[in-house]
Amino acid sequence: MAEKPAYLDENLSFEERARDLVSRMTLEEKASQMVHFAAAIPRLNVQAYNWWNEALHGVARAGVATMFPQAIAMAATFDEDLIHKAADIISTEGRARYHEFQRKGDHGIYKGLTFWSPNINIFRDPRWGRGHETYGEDPYLTGRLGVAFVKGIQGDHPKYLKAAACAKHYAVHSGPESERHEFNAVVSKKDLRETYLPAFKDLVKEAGVESVMGAYNRTNGEPCCGSKTLLQDILRDEWGFKGHVTSDCWAIKDFHENHHVTSTATESVALALKNGCDLNCGHMYLNVLLALQEGLITEEDIDRAVIRLMTTRMKLGMFDPEDKVPYASIPFELNDCKEHRDFALEFTKKTIVLLKNENDLLPLNKDKIRSIAVIGPNADSRDALVGNYFGTASEYVTVLEGIREKAGDDIRIYYAEGCHLYRDKASGLGEKYDRFAEALAVAERSDVVVMCLGLDANIEGEEGDVGNEYASGDKPHLNLPGLQQELLEAVHKTGKPTVLVLLSGSALAVTWADENVPAIIQGWYPGAQGGRAIASILFGECSPSGRLPVTFYRSTDELPDFRDYSMVNRTYRYMQQEALYPFGYGLSYTKFEYSNLSLDKSTINAGDSLEVSVTVKNAGSYESDEVVQVYLKDVEASVAVPKWQLSGFKRIHLKPGEETQVRFTITARQMALIDNEGRCMLEPGVFEVYAGGSQPDARSQKLTGTKVLKASFTVVGETTELPY
User: In this structure, are residues 707 and 695 in contact, taking their beta carbons and an 8 Å threshold?
Assistant: First the structure.
């Protein structure tokens, strides 16, 4: 009997096995593994494999799977445990589908175990079309939720990965979409280290993310998918990243076609490969043998990349018997099962943010209502449920359908589209305002109006994915598009009590609505059962508990230049004006009281951590979740620092009258600042700690009617440089 080759020896490390496997490949075979549609090598028992799969909020683009709310909505839960469980379900379904597809001989795109999620770019500007793929504007929140997602996707087995997650898009990437293939994001050392890199570092060093995807743009002149600074100096040398790097799709051809940092395809291949991009989503690495012939790369460069790729496939169990790989036994029946769909619905309820509730219009009392008018282009829209990078749900429930279901037979539900999402007429042959009369008619006949306005991923999203006059996917402004604002004002004039439900993946400047509409809900892109979840909130089956992971601004005029990557006057950490609705804000149907903010020390030595505790009581009449938030302010910093920044959060659940003590640890690294040279410095001085259900800004405290608690402590000792 022939001796088993080393790459099949389960007693060796995955890297040793990968090295042996690659050593047996011809040059042509190695090159065939470096594009996302990797070829089969039958003589070595290497199956064809397509690396490209998506799992942003559910297994995407390959049929039916459980659909969670869009990523920005996930972030609104401020809940690491929820995100972890959702990601665990996603990878369970990914495994179930992968093995069934393998049995059927289907090795196609979107069928593999390498998920190109999560998107942990910082949503620094609300105009960016892809912002709804992210976890919002805050580096700390993004890092914590990203770590939870990656751990859920990759599992906790000591040997095998459940699936491989991918941190994208590395780095300094958040628009403009229309220029992404040639754009150079110029960023200071301080902003790079303080804002744009922390979440990537967390996913690499804490979560052990298996893959990193480079961005399309240049950062400080270097194309991200071939950046020595980003890929070699920081990612591998400084952070110790051991996984593989993939390019964004067709990004490497941008090197010579759009960035003009190289002149030929082979030069682009060499720049990417030499600096550590192992896998090419696209076709440029089909030129790798030409680059070798031209002397631009070595066979060792090729080997290094292919070994990394094969190591990932080894970790996923692709070269071991199924009975040795625990995740291979996950049955197809778990895909889109009732348990997963039920969890997704409960998850969605926790994403919804109550922005305004004047005179307690909400929750609606079924016993006092005989008719409801549901009006707006998003009222009965599936597109407004799903966001982008979505799969297929086995059931969709729009807001109209959810309200109809919850209202029962005794309440008349009227419906009118009111207007098109962004055009000035709903019908192709219609005239301007062709749905206004119907909307006014149903409003006049109702006891209460639910207006469903906003956006969908057809008009905010990725360049090339959107199909309207916005073209690139970025928003030209923060206003409601088309005739929506006029429709809202016209319905308001009927005098009927109105609830505005916003379905969007980003902040809208609903300043008029804030002044005139009594109740406003931010519903995001809430997933397949979003209408059911929103109706549960409207009728008080559960209390709203979501918090904004982004700032809502009053107008587009307040925003800096979209192309400027400086953090000056951006996000809650550095903005100079008052927000319409601040980061971290969200109302409830009950009232929470905070007391007894306590620090374990008032003076600490540089390098020590601090224990913080606060008591939270449900002083109202509704059982509810609350998101407890802790912010830290460096009072005496030697350089510009955030006015305060989120340093801890925890979602808790309290019944009326119930109270609990919530504890946090603030580390020395959180007390440190990033100086203008990008160094991480812990300076002695006074710090303030805030604890409450929101930021400590005046606007949040006015909106919530609750003052955030404050305490201070002093760090003593010498200024110390800490590891970044």
Answer: no
**Cβ neighbours for 382, distance < 8 A, ≥ 6 positions apart:** 396, 398
Spatial contact of 40 and 46, defined as CB atoms under 8 Å apart:
yes
Between CA 206 and CA 659 the distance in angstroms is 33
3-state SS class at 86: helix
- What is the CATH number that goes with domain 6-334? 3.20.20.300
pLDDT digits (tens, 9 = 90+) for 663-711: 999 999 999 999 999 999 999 999 999 999 999 999 999 999 999 999 9
So where are the chain's domains?
6-334, 338-567, 592-721
Could you give the angle at the alpha carbon of 400 between the alpha carbons of 358 and 491, nearest 5°? Answer: 50
Q: Please tell me the pTM assigned to this model.
A: 0.98
B/e letters for 562-575, b = 16+ CB within 10 Å, e = fewer, are bebbbbeebbbbbb
How does DSSP assign 328-377, residue by residue?
GG--GGGTT-HHHHHHHHHHHHTT-EEEEEGGG-PSP-GGG-SEEEEEST
Q: May I ask the CATH architecture of the domain 592-721?
A: Sandwich (2.60)
Cα distances (Å, whole numbers) of residue 678 to 205, 400, 413, 637, 724: 19, 51, 58, 15, 9
Which CATH superfamily is 338-567 part of? Glycoside hydrolase family 3 C-terminal domain (3.40.50.1700)
Read off the pLDDT of residues 430-475 as tens digits, 9 standing for 90 and up.
999 999 999 999 999 999 999 999 999 999 999 887 655 555 899 9
Max alpha carbon distance in the chain (Å)? 87
**What is the strand order of the sheet 720-721 is part of?**
673-674, 680-682, 720-721
Query: Which residues does the annotation mark as catalytic?
Result: 248, 460
Extract the runs of DSSP E, i.e. beta strands, from 540-684: 592-599, 603-605, 610-618, 624-634, 645-654, 659-666, 673-674, 680-682
